[in-house]
Amino acid sequence: MTAGDGYISPVDPVKRLVDHGPDSERWTLVILGDGYRDTELGKYHNDVDALCDQLRTTPPFSQLWCAINIIRIDVVSTDSGADDPFVVGQCENGTGESPRTYFDGKFCSVWQPGVRLEWLLTVDEALARTTAEAHVAAFDQIHVIVNANKYGGSESPDSDVSVSSNEVTGPTIAIHEIGHSFGLADEYGETGSAIAGGNSEPGEPNVTLDATGANGKWMDLVDPSTDLPTCCNKDCGHAGCDDCDPLESSDYVVGRHEGGRYFGCDMYRPYPVCYMNNFGDSQIFCAVCARVIRQELALHMPTDAVKLVESSIHFKDTLKGVITYRAIKFEVHSCAQLTFSASDPACTFVDPAAEPCPFGLPAETAGTVDDPFSPLKVARLWVQLTTTDTLNQANTTIYVTCNETGEMWPVTVAANTTGIDRSAIVLVLDRSGSMAGSAGGGTTKIEKLREAIFSFAWALRGNDGIGLVRFDHEVNRLMNVEVASTGGSASLSSHAFGADEEKLDPRGLTAIGDAIIEGQAALQSETTGPYSTKAMIVLTDGHQNAGTPLADATSTITETTYAIGLGEPSGINTGILQQFTQSTDGYLRITGEPNTSDQLNLLTKFFLQCLAEINHSQVVLDPGGIIQEGDEHRIPFSAAETERSLDVYLLTPDPTQIEFQLETPGGGLITPESARDLGTAEYIAGDRIAIYRLDMPLLEGDDRSSHAGTWNAVLRRNHTGGVAANGNSARGAPKVPLRYDVVVHGGSDLEFSASTTQSSFEPDRTIRLIATLREYSMPVTDRATVWAEVQRPNGTEFNVAMESDGTGEYRGSFRSSAQGNYVVKVRARGQTLEGATFTREQTFTAVAVAGADREDDRQRDPKLDGEQRHFGLFRCVYRFCTYLKARLRQSV
User: Fold this and answer.
1) Distance CA 454, CA 439 (A)
2) Residue 874 confidence class, pLDDT cut points 50, 70, 90
3) Which single residue of 9, 33, 202, 418 has CA 20 to 30 Å from 344?
4) pLDDT-derived band at 729, boundaries 50, 70, 90
5) What is the 3-state secondary structure (H, E, C) of 742-808?
6) Helix, strand or coil for residue 282?
7) Alpha helices (runs of H) in 136-219, residue ranges in sequence order
8) 3-class DSSP assignment, residue 122
9) pLDDT band of 700, cuts 50, 70, 90
């Protein structure tokens, strides 16, 4: 058939699989496919990858891999397969099929006039060349993989086009055919005598008519003690020559072995086995063929280059009392394995205190790490920093040497420390009249908020500061910033449930703008610090309808602000809050309509995720479930060597009904009682929450069993009685299913962040997702898979793949096909530099609200808000009553 029977893929048809530099300077192989339909391109990609893997592991290609570029072009055929003619006496196994394919792949091709070979698979070579030339400026060889599960192949030295099928031995067939492009002859020994046929000495370097080595071909590779000829075929009648027996080890030397170039007699090859002979068994190139290929590839080898990526590294604002790492990184263009070593750090200190040197080299040398399909190798030499309570600043110069080349680079290393990481957080909470609305299950919104805040109070770290601002149409600062461990947590809980004048009873309108201004003032006036981080968390369930317009108020805010919307996006100032929080390095999360049993935990998890962001922790895992009485659930989660601490939260309406334990990677169990005795663990029990806080490694000197690996949160649903999550005796409980969530946060040197970018909040717009992965401040580009799980407003779900851009950022997008709230969970899974498995995730929301782009609370019609109507009616009645009372007084 013809090119009319297919097309070049319109979507990114050209893929550089192996890229070692300009195609004009490398030995460049272009791979095409024939007989692959559009639905079979994935199969074609796998077939190409199999060929690349085989080539990369086959000497001498593997030894000069840096000289090679490989480019794949996606070609789609109308039909699948290849022509397979049936020809009596020559191709009697042919099926007679004649599919329509782009390059017209065909078995049973003509070998010599009047002679067809069933395995001889050819394509339209001219079309293959013009196709490659249209997409690649310079190349050395074209190889076409034909989608046919039948042994076959060919190579045309005139067009530099080789062909193979994708039969199980396809990659080895391909390498044999590619060998011809280096000028190598087939070494098959079939029938007939080369001399009797009047043949002259062949020009190919791996076959000869000379049995004794007089012409010198490859004789520099022949040991002087080797017999010449080395072996002969017994049917050729040569006297005094040993039979060629492939089972005799004496035959496996470079010499003169009879049989080659299709002649059984009087033609000799260098070695009994070779890719150019019986490659199905040997899968090696003999010394002669390998030398020919090596000499050609050597002309395309790039010059070795070693580049120090950064001449200085800085451990900036490192916490006191931790161990952390940074890497001295080299980029290496070389096919040789290079190693690097460094001098011992000799420290100087800004202050003259007698400090031990905090820098060290955990590995004395580092070697290049191969990426088999990239020209770039990377070497990392790790520097360790161990801080103390008294260390403030230190610096040194480390001299790094490439052991093979002798090159040396000075690298300056500096560190400064900061105190224990402390955060000041002000909660800005809506208690307007609409918070009395139903949240489902017989509860109100304000009740759900109180319960979430109560759990949040338990989750605070002892050295964190907490403040509280409430608002309706008025704004009250109920708490200045107080240290959690000295009463701040208790004060927060008491204000949620306390005396009438202080608690969060719903009333009035919604003055979000004034509340945010007051929240910032509370942060800026705190006196219990110093705090390394300050932030606000704002919760609201409605639109701004009183006080300073929200758009005006947010323009004055500089503190990092997180916002949680309780309800649907249409009922909240979505556009303004989204833009405002993102501009302060925070975000907006929206719960959706709070009418299910999951919503309380979702609200609590949003508060905990804000807390994790503020405290620079990572969300490792966030699963939920239902546990029946008598059941045991095991929730596995991965911890890597990068984790410095773990916080494991159990959220459930009644923790007394669940025995909550942790199982270490070594199989040990941590219970509330044993946690108190470890010294590296803490157990905290609340009414709706239980928490394990662990320093890593949990057991000093026992990293293997109590640090990196698979942990399990073990939950057992009590019968009546027993020890529960809070360490108390479990009370009798009704035999009903119990909802729970297990949330794992980690303080880590492997950092993950995710966010959305919306240029418009209207429906049917693109929502872009961005995630960043860094390990010890270095981007993670090829050791992780990142994706998003998206729930539409109607509850249906879909996944979004996120692709790495090579800088540690992963990107994806989707369209907001319907109005409402989209819950997006961005997840990552991969391996650390040490090979340990890690997981990360973040849950956030994206929104689509008609009119959100035009939202302006300064022009809002109060009649649009039910809360405003109700309060306005009250004011109207009050004013009428006041007027009527005054008139009555006048008439008396």
Assistant:
1) 17
2) very low
3) 418
4) very low
5) EEEEEEECEEEEEEEECCCCCCCCEEEEEEEEEECCEECCCCEEEEEEEECCCCCEEEEEEEECCCC
6) helix
7) 170-180
8) strand
9) low
- Torsion, Cα 51 56 60 66, to 10 degrees, reads 120
Distance separating alpha carbons of residues 467 and 717, to the nearest angstrom: 36
Torsion of CA 799, 801, 802, 806, to 10 degrees: 160
- The dihedrals phi and psi of 706, each to the nearest 5 degrees, come to -135, 25
Strands 153-156, 161-165: pairing is antiparallel
Q: Is the peptide bond before 229 cis (omega within 30 degrees of 0)?
A: yes
CB–CB of 208/278 below 8 Å? no
In this prediction, residue 863 has a pLDDT band, given cuts at 50, 70 and 90, of very low
3-state DSSP assignment of residue 4: helix
Q: Which amino acid is at 126?
A: A
Nearest to 36 by CA among 102, 86, 87, 96: 102
Exposure string of 207-237, with b = 16+ CB inside 10 Å and e = fewer, is: bbbebebeeebbbebbeeebeebbbbbeebe
> Computed from CA positions of residues 11, 14, 20, 23, in that sequence, does the dihedral angle turn out positive or negative?
negative
Number of Cα atoms under 13 Å in the Cβ half of residue 219: 13
Beta strands in 640-708 (DSSP E): 643-651, 658-663, 669-670, 681-685, 689-695
How far CA 851 is from CA of 248, 571, 574, 580, in Å, comes to 85, 12, 10, 17
- Pick the residue with more confidence: 464 or 375? 464
Tell me the pairing of strands 738-748 and 643-651. Answer: antiparallel
**Nearest to 283, CA basis, from 270, 297, 273:** 273
Here the tokens at position 766 are: 């693109």
Strand partners, 777: none
Burial of 394 (0-12, 13-18, 19+ CB in 10 A): buried
Please tell me the distance from the alpha carbon of residue 838 to that of residue 886, in angstroms, as a whole number.
74
The distance between the two most distant Cα atoms of the chain, rounded to a whole number of Å, is 150
Contact between 686 and 629 under an 8 Å Cβ cutoff? The reply is no
Contacts 24+ apart (CB under 8 A), 222-225: 222/253, 222/254, 222/255, 223/253, 223/254
pTM score: 0.61
Q: Do the Cβ atoms of 459 and 531 come closer than 8 Å?
A: no
Q: What is the residue-wise DSSP string for 143-157?
A: EEEE--SS--EEEET
> Which of the residue ranges 156-170, 401-415, 582-596 would you say has the lowest mean pLDDT?
582-596
Cβ neighbours for 691, distance < 8 A, ≥ 6 positions apart: 458, 459, 647, 648, 649, 650, 682, 683, 684, 685
Question: How far apart (Å, rounded) are the C-alpha atoms in residues 802 and 78?
Answer: 31
CA dist 608 and 689 (Å) reads: 12
CA separation for the pair 133, 512 (Å, rounded): 64
842 with 752: CB under 8 angstroms?
Answer: yes
Does 699 have pLDDT greater than 80?
no
- Provide CB contacts within 8 A for 658, sequence distance 6+: 627, 650, 652, 690, 715, 716, 717, 718, 724, 725, 738, 740
Beta strands in 484-575 (DSSP E): 533-540, 560-565
Cα 500 to Cα 452, 494, 497, 506: the distances in Å are 20, 11, 9, 11
Question: What is the pLDDT, as a whole number, of residue 260?
Answer: 94
Sequence-distant (6+) residues with CB within 8 A of 470 are 428, 429, 430, 431, 476, 478, 495, 504, 515
CA separation, residue 260 to residues 126, 272, 816 (Å): 29, 10, 67
Residue 482 to residue 486: CA distance in whole angstroms: 8
Q: Which residue has the tokens 């039909």?
A: 79
